[in-house]
């Protein structure tokens, strides 16, 4: 482990923890503008966090330790995910601990913890949310894996840092399998981050809510940790997508200059991505829960087609 | 010569314990406090000896018992030693649990159960040691019969007797296939020692027939589709420690046999052998996991999950066979390592889960998921230990289930181009199916753990449930520790399976893994793929701690306990509030809808006028209805026709004898 690697690692974690709510605020702002509403301030998510940290935390009598530990566990998993994904640099000491498959495992671990916590209280909504979230999870997880496999077949590696480096060094050219993978990845990230065609983070309509049903019993600091973790998850997903499909600008060697230039490049790419997300959310409508399997199966099939296309054309 | 003697002594020790327990049939105290702990100590001994034997050269022995001129040939090599490790580890933890588990009220007397149990353990050990087909078959049958007796321990229930009968039937159909398989393998030499079977050169057609028979015979024992039907019947019928031992260890002896015959004796074959196993394995995995998510009985859920895991193991073996056929040693070693690691992983986490259901069953008397719930508050020990098993079963890092999943997916991904374009197309599809199976396994495990241990108790009597006793806790702890520690040190697992892969496919991962130190698992170079569970766990732990500190630092409010908000239904009695939760059926409903084609569903809907409306869903296996029931009916019809021969009059029987004699004479003349 080099000192510059450790610095890059700490920089990434700090950037993720501080910047993730900002990304959420940016998406909300873009969406409001696109929908001709008055936009909330960019720092709204921070205000929400501050509000929640100042509120009382109410925990049900019947809650076990699992319920109280789950928000922190999810927060920990998402922080580690942000630390593993190469956002500003590919020379990360922690990245060897988990490759693309382990990253998917990490997301699954976080999901399982929260689903179990939601079932812990034993209300109607908790179980329903857990069931729906696991449903989306078991469909999205293989699709995400297949998407990552598309890239790793090209790069001959599942190590994220190596994948990004290889994609970065490749001469520019269109790879049909990557186009399929990119579309599939977009679909999966919308579902995984409970965005509009699958779930609407802005409502508590009992028949449709998924993520909100999961966290319905949480309040105060526990809810704050969950909100923060959700924004970290979105940050991690955006960064995976950007790093794999638009890898330009990520530092391979940790000179201070490279890292300093990588941060604004990342911010620029995230800003563009946020506009895209807001656009998708504005032009599509939320679908019924039982249409979601078809939607995610499309992503799964697209990713598998991507793999096959690569095998056919690349072989 | 030292290892094999020790192993034989341990098997002999188990037989001695079996004999002793016959003397103390009704003395539960002696059986529980002395015999089972002694059996556990022997299991631990077997584990230690087998680990040492795995890294030593092969040893042979001859036992002069059995038929005259037909001694028992025994041999312990790397493959046998690996499976002895599984037996030792499984026996140790399960016997510890048994010490606290069996009570006087159970159907069969405790002493008799202990007799059958220890004979079962000794038979499994000798199956793995056997070095000739006679010894193998005799021990294989001993294992089948003793496990049948254990399954039917509670034989006063008709459902238990039926389950046992089905098990015995399929076990014997499988055994017949194995007999024929060995018959082909010896190729008219009359010498059934494995060393001879290895030396014989078979015609490709005959070796493929032998392969088919072996897959059928061992598949019947392992529960491969379509021979899986006995598993979900036998596991719920058996006492929980027996289910644990059968699922975790006995199914693995079938995997051992498959490896012994396909890769050791036959030495691999054409590429399509691998594809056959791959297809069967994937079908089993998918069917098993889909069925396990819709079950409402906790042990049936686990039984289907065993079918899934055996399917994944066989998928790995199939992949290894394919790579082996093309001479791709490194990839074959990777795929085989994945399968073997999963053998060990499944042995640990499935034992843990089955023993957990045993503890729940003792505490509550309920096996129906719809009548459980909230046990994490009354049974914290069992709940938290079982949680480790459930997370491992879901294939989540940093537990051991993830290591094998990771290796299996790696072996798909690192496929360099195979010299067969059809296979190249197929491999990504198979990888996709494996990913789907693993994700669904997570769903099943969340259902299993969530419905039993979380939420509010669905029955009032659950509030009086007691936690497991200290022996039972010890058994659970053994497996839970294994699930976590093996997951944290995957490099040790690789070193353990390295001699086996070296022996079977001629290559191993250990050198590549050792080059990167014990912290990181990187079987094919650190820049291609790596997984470091300890760093991973420390990372998650540190980040979680960071979150906790941030929350403590920023939090200005207070923490208050309050009653759960029941959507305005707070006036309902507690028991009815618990019924607002998702039931087991409800939790499986999305899967039932998505995978509708897998099931045969019959519904019973209440009429509007019903005073006590009941809603019932019965989910049945299409394979059982479509393939087994017609055979049963045909056998029944034929038996009835044959029954006409039996008239009950002596003159008719004399006529039969006369006719037989006549036919014989004619034949002799001709």
Search tags:
heterodimer; A: 315 residues; mainly alpha; 11 helices; 71% helix; 1% strand; globular; B: 670 residues; two-stranded antiparallel sheet; 25 helices
Could you walk me through the main structural features you see in this protein, from its secondary elements to its overall organization?
The complex is a heterodimer of chains A (315) and B (670). Chain A has one domain. In chain A, 71% of the residues lie in helices and 1% in strands. Chain A contains 11 helices and 1 strand. The longest helix of chain A is centred in the N-terminal third of the chain and has 32 residues. Among the domains of chain B are: 217 residues; 48 residues. Helix content of chain B is 70%, strand content 4%. In chain B, the strands form 2 sheets. Chain B has a two-stranded antiparallel sheet with strand order 1-2. In chain B, strand 1 and strand 2 form a beta hairpin. Chain B is globular, with a radius of gyration of 26 Å. The model of chain B has no long low-confidence stretch (mean pLDDT 91). Chains A and B meet through strand 1, helix 3, helix 4, helix 5 and helix 9 of A and helix 16, helix 17, helix 21, strand 3 and helix 23 of B.
- Taken in chain order, the helices and strands of chain B follow as HHEEHHHHHHHHHHHHHHHHHHHEHHEEHH
Structural class of the helix and strand makeup of chain B? mainly alpha
Give the radius of gyration of chain B.
Answer: 26 Å
- Which segments of chain B are poorly predicted (pLDDT under 50) over 5 or more consecutive residues? none
Number of domains of chain A: 1
Regarding quaternary structure, what we see is heterodimer
Low-confidence runs of chain A = none
What order do the helices and strands of chain A follow?
HHEHHHHHHHHH
Q: How much of the sequence of chain B is in beta strands?
A: under 5%
Largest interchain contact: A-B, 81 and 88 residues
Shape of chain B: globular
What is the makeup of the main sheet of chain A?
none
* Termini gap of chain B: 56 Å
């Amino acid at each position: 482990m080099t000192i510059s690697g450790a610095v890059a690692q700490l920089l990434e974690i700090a950037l993720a923890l501080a910047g993730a709510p900002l990304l959420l605020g940016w998406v909300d702002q873009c969406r409001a503008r696109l929908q001709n509403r008055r936009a909330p301030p960019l720092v709204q998510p921070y205000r929400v966090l501050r509000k929640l940290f100042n509120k009382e935390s109410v925990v049900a009598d019947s809650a076990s330790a699992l319920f109280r530990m789950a928000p922190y566990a999810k927060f920990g998993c998402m922080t580690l995910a942000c630390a593993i994904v190469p956002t500003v640099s590919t020379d990360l000491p922690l990245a060897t601990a988990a490759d693309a498959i382990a990253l998917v495992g990490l997301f699954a671990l976080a999901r399982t913890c929260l689903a179990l916590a939601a079932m812990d209280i034993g209300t109607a909504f908790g179980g329903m949310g857990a069931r729906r979230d696991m449903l989306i999870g078991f469909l999205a997880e293989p699709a995400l894996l297949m998407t990552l496999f598309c890239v790793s077949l090209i790069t001959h590696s599942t190590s994220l840092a190596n994948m990004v480096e290889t994609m970065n060094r490749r001469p520019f050219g269109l790879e049909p399998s990557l186009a399929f993978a990119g579309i599939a990845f977009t679909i999966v990230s919308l579902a995984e981050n409970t965005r509009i065609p699958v779930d609407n983070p802005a409502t508590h309509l009992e028949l449709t809510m998924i993520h909100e049903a999961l966290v319905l019993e949480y309040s105060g600091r526990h809810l704050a940790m969950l909100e923060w973790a959700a924004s970290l998850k979105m940050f991690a997903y955006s960064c995976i997508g950007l790093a794999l499909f638009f890898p330009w600008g990520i530092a391979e060697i940790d000179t201070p200059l490279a890292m300093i230039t990588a941060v604004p490049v990342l911010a620029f790419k995230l800003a563009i991505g946020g506009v895209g997300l807001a656009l998708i959310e504005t032009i599509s409508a939320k679908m019924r829960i039982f249409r979601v399997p078809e939607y995610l199966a499309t992503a799964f099939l697209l990713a598998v087609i991507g793999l096959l296309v690569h095998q056919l054309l690349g072989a | 010569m030292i290892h094999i003697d020790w192993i034989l002594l341990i098997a002999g020790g188990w037989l001695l314990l079996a004999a002793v327990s016959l003397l103390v049939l009704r003395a539960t105290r002696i059986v529980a406090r002395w015999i089972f702990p002694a059996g556990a100590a022997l299991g631990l001994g077997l584990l230690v000896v087998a680990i040492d034997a795995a890294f030593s050269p092969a040893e042979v022995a001859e036992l002069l018992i059995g038929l005259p001129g037909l001694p028992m040939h025994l041999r312990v090599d790397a493959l046998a030693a690996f499976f002895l490790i599984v037996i030792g580890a499984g026996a140790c933890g399960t016997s510890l649990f048994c010490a606290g588990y069996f009570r006087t009220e159970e159907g069969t007397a405790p002493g008799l159960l202990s007799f059958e149990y220890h004979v079962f353990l000794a038979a499994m050990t000798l199956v793995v040691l056997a070095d000739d087909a006679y010894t193998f078959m005799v021990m294989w049958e001993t294992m089948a019969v003793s496990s049948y007796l254990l399954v039917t321990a509670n034989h006063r229930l008709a459902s238990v007797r039926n389950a046992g009968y089905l098990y015995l039937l399929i076990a014997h159909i499988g055994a017949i296939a194995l007999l024929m398989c060995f018959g082909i393998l010896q190729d008219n030499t009359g010498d059934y020692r494995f060393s001879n079977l290895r030396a014989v050169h078979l015609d490709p057609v005959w070796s493929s027939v032998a392969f088919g028979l072996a897959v059928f015979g061992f598949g019947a024992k392992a529960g491969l589709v379509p021979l899986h039907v006995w598993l979900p019947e036998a596991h719920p019928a058996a006492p929980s420690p027996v289910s644990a031992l059968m699922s975790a260890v006995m199914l693995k002896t079938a995997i051992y046999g498959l490896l012994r015959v396909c890769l050791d004796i036959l030495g691999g074959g054409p590429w399509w052998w691998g594809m056959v196993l791959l297809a069967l394995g994937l079908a089993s995995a998918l069917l098993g996991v889909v069925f396990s998510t819709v079950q409402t009985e906790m042990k049936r859920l686990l039984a289907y999950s065993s079918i899934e895991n055996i399917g994944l193991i066989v998928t790995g073996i199939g992949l290894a066979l394919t790579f082996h056929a093309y001479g791709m040693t490194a990839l074959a070693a990777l795929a085989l390592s994945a399968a073997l690691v999963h053998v060990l992983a499944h042995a640990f986490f499935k034992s843990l889960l089955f023993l957990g259901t045993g503890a729940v069953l003792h505490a509550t008397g309920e096996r129906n998921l719809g009548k459980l719930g909230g046990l994490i508050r009354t049974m914290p020990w069992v709940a938290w230990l079982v949680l480790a098993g459930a997370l491992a079963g879901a294939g989540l890092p940093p537990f051991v289930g993830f290591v094998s999943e990771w290796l299996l997916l790696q072996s798909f991904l690192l496929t360099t181009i195979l010299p067969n374009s059809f296979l190249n197309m197929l491999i990504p599809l198979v990888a996709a199916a494996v990913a789907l199976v693993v994700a669904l396994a997570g769903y099943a495990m969340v259902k299993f753990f969530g419905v039993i241990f979380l939420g509010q108790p669905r029955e009032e009597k659950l509030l009086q449930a007691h936690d497991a006793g200290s022996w039972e806790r010890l058994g659970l702890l053994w497996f839970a520790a294994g699930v976590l520690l093996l997951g944290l040190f995957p490099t040790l697992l690789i070193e353990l399976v390295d001699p086996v892969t070296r022996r079977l496919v001629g290559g191993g991962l250990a050198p590549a893994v050792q080059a990167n130190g014990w912290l990181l698992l990187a079987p094919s170079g650190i820049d291609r793929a790596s997984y470091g569970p300890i760093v991973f766990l420390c990372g998650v732990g540190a980040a979680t701690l960071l979150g906790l500190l941030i929350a403590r630092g920023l939090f200005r409010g207070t923490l208050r306990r309050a009653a759960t908000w029941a959507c305005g239904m707070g006036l309902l009695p507690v028991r009815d509030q618990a019924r607002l939760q998702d039931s087991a059926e409800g939790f499986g409903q999305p899967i039932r809808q998505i995978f509708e084609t897998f099931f045969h569903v019959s519904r019973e809907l209440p009429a509007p006028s019903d005073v006590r409306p009941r809603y019932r869903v019965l989910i049945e296996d299409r394979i059982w209805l479509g393939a087994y029931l017609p055979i049963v009916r045909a056998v029944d019809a034929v038996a009835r026709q044959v029954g006409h021969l039996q008239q009950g009059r002596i003159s008719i029987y004399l006529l039969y004898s006369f006719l037989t004699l006549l036919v014989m004479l004619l034949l002799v003349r001709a």
